[in-house]
Amino acid sequence: MKWLRSVLLPAEGSQYARQVDDLYMFIVWLSVFFFVLIAGLLAFFIWRYRRRGPDEVTPHITHNFKLELTWSIIPLILVTILFVWGFHGYVSSVVPPKDALEIQVTAKRWLWEFEYPNGSRTINEMRVPVGKPVKLIMSSADVIHSFYIPSFRIKMDVLPNRYTQTWFEPLQVGTHVLFCAEYCGRAHSDMLAKVTVLSDEDYRKWLEFGDETSEQMPLKELGAMLHESRGCDTCHSLDGSAGLGTSFKGVFGTRRRLADGQSVEVDENYLRESILEPQAKLAAGYQPIMPTFQGLLREREISALIEFIKAQR
Amino acid sequence: MNGPTSEHGAAHLSYLREKRGLKSWLLTLDHKRIGVMYLWSVLIAFALGGFFAMVVRLELLTPQKTLIDADTYNQAFTLHGAIMIFLFIIPAIPASLGNFVLPLLIGAKDVAFPRLNLASYYVWVTGAVLALVSMVTGGVDTGWTFYTPYSSTTGGSVSLIVLAAFILGFSSIFTGINFIATIHKLRAPGMGWYEMPLFCWGAYATSVIQVLATPVLGITLLLLIMERVFQIGIFDASLGGDPVLFQHFFWFYSHPAVYIMILPGMAIISEVIPVFSRKTIFGYKAIAYSSLAIAFVGFLVWGHHMFVSGQSELASAIFSFLTFLVAIPSGIKVFNWLATMYKGSISLEAPMLYAISFLLLFAIGGLTGMFLATLAVDVHLHDTYFVVAHFHYVMMGGTTIAFLAGLHYWWPKMFGRMYSEKLARWAAALVFVGFNLTFLAMFVMGSRGMPRRYYNYLEEFQPLHALATFGSWILGLGLVLILGYLLGSLRKKPDAPPNPWGGKTLEWTAASPPITHNFEQVPVVTRGPYDYRPVEGAP
């Protein structure tokens, strides 16, 4: 009966999907049994007891306690089995393994944003390694959305005021569809994303070097993109105005006074150090609040940011 | 039952003819006339909701734009749902057919509070007019469930349609209060609780839910209006509210409301099957108590709409188990109806054809409910077409088909005319086939991951969507045909005998159509409602 399973359900992208499908198919057969029973009896009675004359007399059968008890208790046993089985599967779907890879998911009308442990971000495409549990920590920037990947049989609402989570472990390399399943307005039905399952090696390579487009981007352009996407622009302005951090305008090549009274020339090495270890040489007049980007930026991205800052004259 | 028809029948005109003129209708306190006004009103609502359904189905014929843009589509499915739920299904059976037949079934002259009954109708009309106004003044695109914070932040006339639903709630409460009092106080002499026709048990259980649950919806909808108008943060996270709280409040009413919709349908089936099997109902008390059980457990299952909403896992587990429990009394009813047909004398006139349709479609609706009650499976199926198919099997395949069964069953009583039996059989077949074509495909789509409320969809789903759209045309044709021959029958001379189907309940002892006071003399009940044993000493 494999064909029926493949007609009714999408391909199984995870071990968990298989578990769900086993239960789904069990309920299918249970339903088929009861439907055939009901429809069969109905058809048989309609034919066997069709009215043959206007004055037909029927037996006066008011009830049958044993029979009624039977058709109360058997369904009760069956639904209890379904409940326990369904609960069992559900528990494994809500409790992720401790070593799961964590990806932050932000839903907003009408796109999906993914942030990986090293700070990489993608929009409308989630890249994950094959055979590793992936845990998603999700929130919404506006209304309620719902994170739904049919191939993994997982769904979880994404809320604006709290984090929700779900997890999956992909079985094979390939791509899957991610839908928004909670109605969210005009482009609800276009709020789709691609889930790309990569081999472990491809995934690591991608994390380290980025995808093809950013690889081919000139350093300065990549730096400009990172300046925004990594939030540098929150504190470091480009127009000379003071923020929580120094402005990047004309900063390269100058000498900076440091908080400990010494001074340093702003060159490539100083910039690199400040990105990776911001408090090593803190500029005078600023609070030590910048987080380290150690491990959050790829080698090429650090160079790109330095090139970008150099270009701010 | 012995309800003597009067020898002075000629002295009294039927309720349709005793008084004439528009005013005699608009200000009537007669439960039958109010029932008839409700009937035409809910049929208009049904036609309007059906129109939006056809628009939605037509748009979904192709994966991209077929006919209308996304915003119009979102409004169309919202109005389809809101109209069908609040204006059609909830009042359909209790307020139209129920209003007409309940007093007749228990041998009463009228309901307990005739003025409240009329008030309920005008409250309904007010709500319906407001809903229509909201449609033309900006429209509503929230879905009928009004989930926050979408509904508290989107544009359009959301406040107005929510106000309409709030007002409609009162009409529902009024009907509920009326039926409870009527059933308690106005039963004919000799009719104890267990001599009541089963329709009354269903109507009673429904009324209890209407009275207890509807106020919660009213409060919730008021809070939503306050949030939209005064920016009070109750449900909107950006104002400090909690969006999931709205879902709890909403489903606390709207799940019991599902039983407000289905219990009266089951109640009609319990009338039709014994009559057309010419045999007493099997397990009277089991059917009666199962209605009460469904009404009671129905209050405790609202969280099954929220398995993936972020509610606690423990809550989900408890709601899952309680949801399964509803299957037991529902199953009991189905088996009892089947057992009633065993060794019966079954004839297949239109009401029975609909009752048989009901048994098959409700069985599918109920069995597919098990998929959704099962936690692990529901996570996958929630908010997909599987859910859409499931609740249409229960609400349309169940309630609406039962409504049609009741309409065909009591039509001769209501208007004194027989409709064309031949056309009625054709229509029943068209409705059955069209309905299954439309919604069976949706179970497969949903299982394969097609999310609901989608304007555009993936190419792979197109064949099944096309099948569903095609089915909706057959279904629509069947429904139009019904309207045609029913209206056609009104143009004929009155030709319905008092008891065309051989029923044993009291309404069949009244004239067709009944006189204003229903019975010439107060009926005295000496036999059960479905007692088909030959009367001793009778010729």
How many strands, what sense, and barrel or not for the largest sheet of chain A? 5 strands, mixed
Radius of gyration of chain B: 23 Å
The interface involving the most residues is between:
A-B, 81 and 89 residues
Work out the helicity level of chain A: 25-40%
Describe the main β-sheet of chain B briefly. Answer: none
Written as H for each helix and E for each strand, in order along the chain, the element string of chain A is: HHHEEEEEEEEEEHHHEEHH
Give the proportion of residues in helices of chain B. 55-70%
Quick one: how many beta strands of chain A? 12
Distance between the termini of chain B: 16 Å
The secondary-structure element order of chain B is HHHHHHHHHHHHHHH
Q: What is the average of the pLDDT values of chain B? A: 93
- Approximately what portion of the residues of chain A adopt beta-strand conformation? 15-25%
Strand content of chain B: under 5%
Average pLDDT taken over every residue of chain A: 91
Q: Tell me the overall shape of chain A.
A: elongated
Number of helices of chain B: 15
What structural category characterises the helix and strand content of chain B? mainly alpha
End-to-end CA span of chain A: 70 Å
- Rg for CA atoms of chain A: 30 Å
Number of helices of chain A: 8
List keywords for this structure.
heterodimer, A: 313 residues, alpha+beta, five-stranded mixed beta sheet, 8 helices, elongated, B: 539 residues, mainly alpha, 15 helices
Give a verbal description of the structure.
The complex is a heterodimer of chains A (313) and B (539). By secondary structure, chain A is α+β, with helices and mostly antiparallel strands. The longest helix of chain A is centred in the first third of the chain and has 34 residues, at 15-48. Chain A is elongated. Helices cover 38% and strands 20% of the residues of chain A. The model of chain A has no long low-confidence stretch (mean pLDDT 91). Chain B is mainly α and 539 residues long. Helix content of chain B is 66%, strand content 0%. Chain B has helices at 22-26, 31-59, 70-105, 114-136, 150-153, 158-185, 198-230, 243-277, 284-297, 313-341, 350-373, 375-381, 385-415, 421-447, 462-490. The two termini of chain B are 16 Å apart. The model of chain B is unreliable at 1-9 (pLDDT under 50). At the A-B interface, helix 2, helix 3, strand 7 and strand 9 of A face helix 3, helix 8, helix 9, helix 10 and helix 11 of B.
